[in-house]
Write a structure and sequence with these properties.
The structure is a homotetramer.
Chain A: E1 2-7, H1 15-28, E2 32-36, H2 40-45, E3 48-51, H3 80-91, E4 95-100, H4 102-113, E5 118-122, H5 138-153, E6 161-167, H6 174-183, E7 187-189, H7 197-209, E8 214-220, H8 237-249, E9 252-257, H9 269-287, E10 293-298, E11 301-306, H10 319-328
Parallel strand pairs in A: 1-2, 1-4, 4-5, 5-10, 6-8, 6-9, 7-8
Antiparallel strand pairs in A: 2-3, 10-11
Helix pairs in contact in A: 1-9, 5-6, 6-10, 7-8
Chain lengths: 331, 331, 331, 331
């Protein structure tokens, strides 16, 4: 077979591990791999070149993607789908393996509806692609954010202090929730439930009244707030919390904005294992012509679910994890 | 309620995170926690003391267990079960939360059959407790072993060299398999399938004939071998592979024995999240009087399965992971 | 001897390692250790308690300080020095070992001039205490900031992007300079030399014109700028660079503010070795009654230099390191 | 200028950072760089190719050496020096920058005596090259070994146990000494002072009698022992200690052999800074025609010392560090 391969959407650790898995297994099976540069854009523009096992040497441990990526959806541009079809025809690709988040995979499903054979692999540090319990990049992002929370705990300074750390997560709070619990945060502000800053300020004051000199607050960038006036519209969620708590408690606050640090770095062993397994499963799916499917990690297995599943929208955080957080943070 | 808590079996990272979860949630619910020292031995000997949230400050990130542990099974000693009953009666414990591997949890189930209310939390770096897909400690051990494999890859030396690393895993190869794939090992020797050293030596030679100057071989301590004479009976699996491959290939071999390094260190974020969630679920199970159960991580949920499940024996590695390894190592 | 011990100024990793070193060696020598809480404030307030080897178990690997710290200088408060003298007299302390940055150590020297026997150990993630080449906490902070720079490099996204990371360093650029070089930053903005944003924007554009899609810029919080109008007075140096470069280049910029993450976490091996060696040397200095001295790391030795040296003011970054940075960043 | 570059001797982290530094600065200065493969062997065999900044992209963070290395000394082979001269003449190299340990650098000095312009950069995880306080690779190896010691500390198991870890260091104990202190080892066995196993066993027993259940012993592979019979000739130092202490104390012992794990992995920030600075200094030395010199890290500066200095022999560990270890381990 001739297998096309691309990575789309935002960067994350583990993309190269998936590419390596696909290429090595496909080569082993006698297939040829064509890598497209910069996601769907490379398919539209015909930026393609052969990928061999030799090209994947040493990339298992790397962050990022050797193929480049872009946030571009051919189905949203006039003529985009036709250009994809034209490239696939010209290059002679039998199937496209598409590694991406809900945007990139959504486009993949639209193209499948136009008759293009596609297979999807889910990746996003937000972990909210529907149909799979884990996406490539999430485990590493949680590890990175947790390490930041860990570091903020160690303070011996004698005054009351609130350490605020803003993590990614615009729509869902997977990252903030998991890093907050794993790091032992004292409070977690998420998109899922609006934060009442007055109530949070009081809860933190009670904690300090009982003897704590420092608290750590994890804030997802998409955190929502009760009763905020328009003056906050240009400020990040981290700034809203940092300034809002300072004003309400009189404590010093210190803000860390992790930013793209969360998208980079060496993937964890768990992410590499997941990405490699997804890559192997995708090549196997290509051989059984199981198109328009998503490789999904479900209960220690890799399953094939319909790619249409992705369109269900962002997968919500589990209720039990919200409960765990509620028990272990201030109230 | 008055909740007894103990950790049994071998050490691993994440035990303290589970203890912290149990104690904080129970205290929040108005329960009292009694910690027993050194696993079942502390129950038999009545080594018990109160545990409060203050005692669990700063332990989330720690390896090991603040309660101590031991490999001791009351049901295998005459009068052991009676002494457990006596302690529970005397101390006035309503339920025992038992954190352990199959041995410790097996004893817990035996005691449940004698009428003692127990709830189990699975931990083992071998990840082979039946009934749950993940055990506390496994993710960290995989991370540790993978990091060792990573380090062994970087060699610029010009001669043929085999880097052998022996990892834990006497009965099942979960750790070696996952760290081998995640670390990109060139060969993996497991308890699951006997290794043919002649065949492996040839496969590695072919790899070097194609230009590699160095290969990494992961060996589980319980790896089995084809056609080995008795002279190997006193040598570790790592030594058998290291010496056996040196003799067959003429290459230099270098052996790393990770040993207890795999049982130590700060737990990963994933292990802390799992351990904390298990701890919360166990207290909830105590309140619903769901005794003789095992907290199980299944498909992004915590479920309660019958503790008898543990007796099914070591949970085997998934076939698909063996396939992934087969594709990505030498043949 | 009866040795008083305190940690003052901002938090940093390695303080506990120094405390452990002092306590274990002193105990071994038959001395008694009195720990003062929260720096000089604890001496003024008489917050003192005995410290033994048992108290220091497990702290070598910890960040922060078990004694607490504060930014308080007795010599700057009316009656402060007298209260220090009173406490020392009452508690019966023969010598005070003071772990701190230039503020804390400056006070120590002032007290020495009042006849109080003090010995200083330098710590600061800014590494700018005069008289020593290394201070406790610096190596760890450089490691932390470098890891952030590492993570920002891995981007496969196809558009022009500037990753800006703000690190600590108000007066001197040790941290930004070393982390920038070690992390391979494309540009470094320091307090030492005013940054010309126009020139920097052009240099980065040239780099991108030659094919780069992403650049990393390290900005010390005390970075200075050419020709900036007053409108920037309320913005952090990171924001000035991030917004300033976005406006000048049209590239997307992404800002990471590391904040107190740089003061936390497990100390590196190098910091633990330094801190332990300083602790041992300080007890030895106490026994030889070498008061009013600073433990200094000079060329693989620990030397005793006059504590007055600290007053020379912040130790500048070496010219050769600025040269190294100039060679390896854009111009 | 036309600058030849090679890396010789054993692998270590930071070699690529030095290569990157040399190449980027030289290119910036208008020089041409010729990289020789596999150390001196590549010079003898004429295995040379151009190196440009593009070749060094992404290598700063890598372990190992992109040029390959070998343990080969041209001055010890008949005609070796002539072949070096021939290659240098043929390729037209104005100066050779040689990155290596005492063996490789010793050969460099011999070649300098034959009129070949050489400049040396010291690297070895043993840190024992004379003339410099730090060698590339040492800081990372200490970090790796310290992390192993850290992990061995966390044990909650209730019986007496000795955790033994064998680290590299055949002639000098730099690595074992620094990792032992930084990791808080309970005992350290070095090549510098013969270990009396009877005495050590008694000291550890006293420690356990006072309540410890576990001790960590760091053993350099070149550790020497008092009164050992010939039966130990085929056993590693780690095995001698592990078995010897088990026999004398009756405690369980567990052996970790770190092996080549210590030569691999991502270099620490400190190693990258040192390696980069050495690389810059070497190109500057080339331009000032300061041949037959060694780049030396001395007291926060890079100095040029005569390459002959290397021949003084292995640089001993500082006495004060032995004292620090003596204070902080069992006696």
């Amino acid at each position: 077979m001739r297998i096309g391969l691309l990575t789309g959407g935002g960067d994350c650790p583990g993309l190269d591990a998936a590419i390596r898995g696909v290429v090595r297994v496909a080569e082993d099976e006698g297939d040829e791999i064509i890598g497209f540069r910069h996601g769907w854009r490379g398919v539209v523009d015909g930026e393609a070149s052969s990928l061999t096992t030799a090209d994947t040497k040493g990339i298992l441990q790397q962050g990022g993607t050797m193929l480049g990526t872009a946030r571009y959806h051919p189905d949203e541009h006039t003529g985009g789908v036709d250009m994809v079809l034209a490239t696939i025809d010209r290059v002679g690709v039998d199937v496209l393996i598409v590694i991406g988040g809900d945007g990139t995979l959504g486009s993949a499903h639209q193209l499948a509806l136009s008759g293009i054979p596609v297979i999807g692999i889910p990746k996003t540090i937000d972990n909210d692609v529907s149909g799979t319990t884990r996406c490539i990049g999430f485990d590493t992002a949680v590890a990175t954010a947790t390490e930041a929370v860990d570091r903020l705990h160690t303070t011996g300074e004698s005054h009351d202090r609130l350490m605020v750390v803003e993590v990614m997560g615009r729509t869902t709070g997977w990252l903030g929730l998991c890093a907050g619990i794993a790091g032992g945060a004292d409070a977690i502000c998420l998109p899922e439930e609006p934060t009442d800053l007055d109530k949070l300020a009081h809860a933190l004051q009670r904690r300090h009244d009982r003897g704590s000199t420092s608290s750590v607050v994890v804030v997802a960038e998409g955190a929502r707030f009760e009763d905020l006036t328009g003056s906050n519209c240009h400020r990040s969620a981290g700034e809203v919390v940092s300034d809002g708590l300072a004003a309400r408690t009189g404590y010093e606050t210190r803000l860390t904005v992790l930013g793209h640090v969360q998208r980079g770095g060496m993937p964890t062993a768990t992410d590499r294992l997941l990405a490699t397994s997804f890559g192997v499963a995708a090549v196997q799916a290509a051989h059984t012509r199981s198109f328009d499917t998503l490789m999904a990690s479900i209960d220690d297995r890799i399953e094939l679910v319909p790619l249409a599943e992705v369109a269900v929208g962002p997968r919500p955080v589990p209720k039990y994890l919200l409960d765990v957080a509620r028990y272990l943070t201030v109230r």
